[in-house]
Amino acid sequence: MILAQATNPIIRWEYLRDEWDKVRTALIQHIELTLLAVALGLVVASVLAAIALRYRWTANPITTFTAFVYTIPSVALFGLLVPYTGVSRTTAVIPLVGYTLLILVTSILTGFRSVPPAVRDAAEGMGLSPARRVFTVELPLAVPYIITGIRVATVTTVGLVTVAAIVGEGGLGRLILDGLRRTFWTPMTVGASLSIILALVLDLSLWGLGRALTPWTRRGGPQRAATR
Amino acid sequence: MAACSLLTAACGSSDKKADTGGSTTATTVAGPGIKIRGQDFSESATIAQVYGQYLKAKGYTVDILTPAGFRDEAIAALKSGAVNLIVDYIGGDATALAPDTKVTAEPDQVLGVIKPAFAAIGATVLEYSEATDGDAFVVRGDSPAAKISDVKNLDTVLGASPQCETRPQCYIGFTDPAVYGITFKEYKKIDFGPQLGEALSAKEVDAVVWNTTAPQIKEKGFKVLEDDKRLFPAQNVAPIVSTSVNTAYGSKLAADLDALSNAITTDDLVAWNVETDVKFRESDAVATEWLKKKGLD
Amino acid sequence: MILVAAAQAVRRDIGLWEWLFDAGTWTGRNGILATAGDTVRLCAAVIATSALIAVPLGAFLAHIRRGELAATWVVNVGRAIPTFALAGLLVPISLRWGYGFEPWPVFVALTLLSVPPIFLTTFTAVSQVDPVVVDAARGMGLEDRRVLLRVELALALSVILTGVRVAAVQAVATEPIRAFLGGGGLGGYLRDGLGQNNDTLVLGGAILVAALAALTGAAFGVFERVIVPKGVRRLRRAGDRGSSHNGEDHERASVQVSEAADPVGSLQLADGGLR
Fold first, then answer.
1. In chain C, pLDDT over 90 holds for what percent of residues?
2. Cα–Cα distance, B208 to B159 (Å, whole number)
3. Maximum CA pair distance of chain C?
4. What is the pLDDT of residue B256?
5. Which candidate, B184, C76, C184, C271, has a CA 20 to 30 Å from the CA of B145?
6. C203 and chain A: CB distance < 8 Å anywhere?
7. Interatomic CA distance for residues C191 and C198, integer angstroms
8. Are A194 and A172 in contact, with CB atoms under 8 Å apart?
9. How many CB atoms lie within 10 A of CB B15?
C-alpha cells in the first residue's frame, strides 16, 4: 500500500495561516535572543576593549582569544554546554555572546584608536578629566566604527540563533530544524527567509540609528552614499 | 481530494478554537502542575501532546513544553525537575541507564531493569503500553535478505545514527561475531530520520537502522528484516513520572495515565507519524483529533 | 568514513590528551590527518570557486564605479543566510538526483557563504585605487581594459587576499556542518561526540576545527607576505590611514567596509606600526 504523499512545495501558504502562532512565537523568540546576545556582548566587549586600551599589552591576547572563540564551530559550543546548563536559554546565550566578542571588541578598539591624536591632545589641553574626555570627545568619534561592529555582530547573531535550535532555543531555527527532520520544505523556507529578512531589517535599523547619532558624517554631497 | 484536505484544515482550526474554549474550564484536580516535554522528533512530540492534552482535559494543570533534546536530556530534565513527566521507550531507557545489563525482547524483563534505575533518580515508571516503536533493520524491497543473518553474505553499506555505533544492541551487536558477525563495507552516519529513507532509495546505503513506526518504510516499499538473533530489546511506550508528583496525587495520576497508555496501540503511533511526516500536519492538531476520536478529550 | 570489520568506536571515558596523543587517532583511514585532508580539499574547491566568481565581479563593478550600495547589501545578505539550513535543504534534492550526500549541498552553501567577503574586499580594493595612478597609466597610452588588469588589480591584490583569507577561515570553521548531513570531514568528531555523549570527541573535534582554521589564516598570512611586494603593502597601509585623494569620508567608509569583512585584519592595519 503506497500512501499518497501530501504535496510538498517550496512553501505551502496554508502553513503560514494555520501555524501563524508558531511562526510568530519563533520570530519573537529569535528577536529576543539576538538582542539579548548582542546587548550582553556589547557590555562584555566594552570591558575587554577598555582593558585593551588602558593596558596596551593585553590588546593582542584579548583579540587572539576572541578570534579563537569565533572559529569554534557553534554546534560544538552548544553541545558542550548542555551537560552543564541543560537545555535552556543560558546554554544558547553563552555561545551567542561569545561569538559577538571578536567583532565588537575590534570595532570598539578601532573606533577609539581612530581618534586623531591632535583631538585627544586638545581635549587634554582644555583641562577635561580622562572620563569626560573619553565619553564626550572620543566616544562620539568612535561611534561610527562601533555601530558598524554592532551591525555585523547583529547579522551574524541572527544566523547563529538558528543553530541554537538544537538546544531548543532557536527561534526561527526551530522551524528550519523541524523541516529538516521531516523533509518538509515549508517550515524550512519560512524559517530561512524570515531570518534573512530579520537580519536585513535589523541591519537597516542600526544603520539608521548610526546616522541619527552621528550627524556630522552626513555632510558632503556625493560622498553621502559612501558614508555607510 | 483538495476539498477533503481543505475541510480537514478548516475542521482542524475550528477544533483548535474549541479547544482553547474548552481548556479555560477551571482545573479541577488539585496538585502540583505537570510539566511534560517530548524529545526532538515528531513521534515523541505527538506522544507528549497526546498525554499532555489528555491530562489537561481531565482537569490537571499541564504545561506542554517545546520538544527539545533527546533521551539523555529528557532524563536529566526529569532528574533536575525541569520536567516531571516524560514518555519514553523502555528499551532505550535501559540502554541509557543500565548499559551493561542485558535486556531482552520481553517487556517485563526490561521493566525490571529500568524501574530501580529510575527510582534511583526519583522517578516512577508506570504501566507500559502495548504500543511499541522498536528498532528496525530496513533494506530495499528488492533485497534477497529476509532476516538480519542473511546480510552477512551481502556487501552492505550501513546507514545509521552516530548513536548506533556505541550501542551493544545496535552496531556493536551487528558486528560482534558472537551475535551477527556482519562486516559492513561502510558505515555512513546519518542524523535525520527521513534522510535514512532518502539514502536507502538513492542507493547511497543498502541497509538502515530505522524505527518500526516510520511511515516511509511501507510508503517506499522497503522491507524490515527479521531479528533472528533477538538482538533488539522491547521498546514499549511508557510514561515516567517524578515520584514526588506521583505521590502528591495519591493513586489518581497513575490510574489516569495507565488508562491512556492502555488505549494506545502501535497502529496509532504509525498513524500519527503518517499525519506529521507524510501529510505534514502539526503534532498538537494530530493529538487533539485522536483524543476526540477516542472520546478521551 | 570506512570502518573495517569490528573497528572500535571511541571509548566514552577516554581523556582528551590520551585521545589526541594516541597515534591511532591520527593515522589510518579515518584518522585525523585523513579527515582534515578531506576538509581541506572541500574548502579549497569552495574558495577557488568563490574567488573565480567574486573577484571578476567585484573588480568589474568597482572599475565602472557602480554598485557600492549593492556591495554592502550583498555582504549583509550573505552573512544572514543560514548556511546549515541551505545545505540541509539541498541534501534531499542531491539524493533524489543521484548525487549522494556530498559534496554538492555543502559545496553550494559554503560557496554562497564565501563569495560576499571576497566580493566586498575586491570591490573596495579596486575602488580605492588612487585615480592619479590610473590617469598616469592612461596617459602612457594603455587601453582601458589593460589599465584595469595591470594597475588596479596589482595594487588591489593585497586587499583581495585579505578577503580570501577571511573567506577561507570562515569556510573551514563552517565546514563541520557537512558531517551532520551524511558527509565526512572534521565535523565527524563533533557529530559522533554529540550523538554518543562523548565530551572528549566534542572538545577534540572543536579544537581540531579551530586549529585548522587558525592554521589556514596563518598560511594565507604567510602567502600574502610572500607574494605581495613590500612596497605595495606599505602603500596600502598609508592609503588606509588617510593619504588617499578621495576624501576623509570615503576613506572612512572604505575602512568601515573592509573592517566589516575582516575585523582582525583591519585592526592590524589600523594599528599601523603598533604591532
1. 14
2. 5
3. 74
4. 94
5. C184
6. yes
7. 10
8. yes
9. 16
Bigger pLDDT: C3 vs B104: B104
> What does the pLDDT average to over C199-203?
86
Q: Do C72 and A220 touch (CB under 8 A)?
A: no
Q: Is residue A21 pLDDT above 70, yes or no?
A: yes
User: For chain C, give me the number of helices (H) and strands (E)?
Assistant: 15, 0
The SS3 assignment for B198 reads helix
Percent of chain A with pLDDT over 90: 26
Measured between CA atoms, how close is B259 to chain C, in angstroms?
34
Encode pLDDT of C52-94 as tens digits. 999 998 888 877 777 777 777 777 777 778 888 888 888 888 8
Q: pLDDT digits over A143-176, tens only?
A: 888 998 899 899 889 988 988 887 778 789 889 8
A49 contacts A109 by C-beta, under 8 angstroms: yes
pLDDT tens by residue, C116-126: 888 888 887 77
Interface touch A106/C267, C-beta < 8 Å: yes
Q: Does A77 touch chain C (CB under 8 A)?
A: yes
- Among B51, B35, B134, CA closest to B89: B134
Per-residue HEC secondary structure of chain A comes to CCCCCCCCCCCCHHHHHHCHHHHHHHHHHHHHHHHHHHHHHHHHHHHHHHHHHHCHHHHHHHHHHHHHHHHCCHHHHHHHHHHHHCCCHHHHHHHHHHHHHHHHHHHHHHHHHCCCHHHHHHHHHCCCCHHHHHHHHHHHHHHHHHHHHHHHHHHHHHHHHHHHHHHCCCCHHHHHHHHHHHCCHHHHHHHHHHHHHHHHHHHHHHHHHHHHHCHHHHCCCCCCHHHC
C166 HSE (CA, 13 A, CB side): 27
B249/C53 Cα distance (integer angstroms) = 67
**What is d(CA B35, CA B32) in angstroms, rounded to the nearest whole number?**
9
Q: Is the pLDDT of residue B268 over 60?
A: yes
Average pLDDT of every residue of chain C: 74
Q: Where are the alpha helices (DSSP H) in chain B?
A: 2-22, 42-57, 71-80, 90-97, 107-119, 171-175, 193-201, 215-219, 243-248, 252-263, 266-273, 283-293
- Compute the Cα dihedral for A24, A29, A34, A39 and give only its sign: positive
Please check whether residue A174 is in contact with residue A181, taking contact to mean a CB–CB distance below 8 angstroms: no
pLDDT tens digit sequence for C227-260 = 766 655 555 555 454 433 333 433 444 444 444 4
Neighbours of chain B (3+ CB pairs under 8 A): A, C
b vs e for A183-219, b when ≥16 Cβ sit within 10 Å of the residue's Cβ? bbbbbbbbbbebbbebbbebbeebbeebbeeeeebee
Q: C-alpha grid cell for residue A64?
A: 587572539
Cell of B38: 517530548
Contacts of A137 (CB under 8 A, 6+ apart): A115, A119, A120, A123, A128
Residue-level pLDDT at C133: 59
The distance of A83 to chain B (nearest Cα, Å) reads 8
β-partners of residue B138 are B208, B224
- Closest-approach residue (CA) in chain A for C270: A110
What's the sign of the alpha-carbon dihedral C3, C7, C9, C10?
Answer: negative
Q: Is B282 helix (H, G, I), strand (E, B) or coil?
A: coil
Question: Does residue A10 sit at the C interface (CB-CB below 8 Å)?
Answer: no
Residues B282, A168: C-beta atoms closer than 8 Å: no
Specify the DSSP class assigned to residue C18: H
Task: Give the Cβ contact number of residue B72 at 10 Å.
Answer: 14
Q: From A78, which residue of chain B is nearest by alpha-carbon distance? A: B69
- What's residue A5's pLDDT? 54
From first CA to last CA, the distance across chain B in angstroms is: 28
Tens of pLDDT, residues B93-133: 998 899 888 889 999 999 999 999 999 999 999 999 999 99
Q: What mean pLDDT comes out for the span A83-94? A: 84
Q: For residue B222, what pLDDT is reported?
A: 94
